[in-house]
Design goal:
single chain; about 110 residues; 4 helices; 3 strands; about 55% helix; elongated
Length: about 110
């Protein structure tokens, strides 16, 4: 039921939070904003509805770097030089996730 209410707010074009969030916790499948979980796959829509296009771009970069990290790790099992890219894509992905969280919390990326 909660899932339907959250997605209803996102699809209706309204931002589900009314004040600046205090806590953002991102994991593989969900992103929790002040304790309310949102699916990571559709969280970009919520970010755009809340006027956070830069955070949505960081979310997209984080998700694509996760795929690259898994892909280069798997490819490294066959062609070992592919493993060289795995930590690089992982670090880029973690930084994009942290930047997304910072942008949601206070609108700017920490230096």
């Amino acid at each position: 039921m909660l899932w339907m209410m959250m997605m209803g707010a996102a699809l209706a074009g309204g931002c589900p939070w009314t004040e600046t969030p205090r806590v953002v916790d991102a994991s593989w499948k969900t992103i929790a904003v002040d304790g309310t979980p949102y699916p990571a796959s559709t969280f970009g829509v919520v970010l755009f509805d809340c006027g956070e296009p830069e955070a949505a771009m960081k979310l997209d970069k984080w998700q694509s770097m996760r795929l690259w990290t898994v892909g280069t790790g798997a490819a490294g099992c066959i062609v070992w030089p592919a493993w060289v890219a795995t930590p690089i894509t992982g670090i880029i992905g973690v930084q994009a996730c942290e930047d997304m969280e910072d942008l949601i919390l206070d609108g700017r990326v920490k230096e």
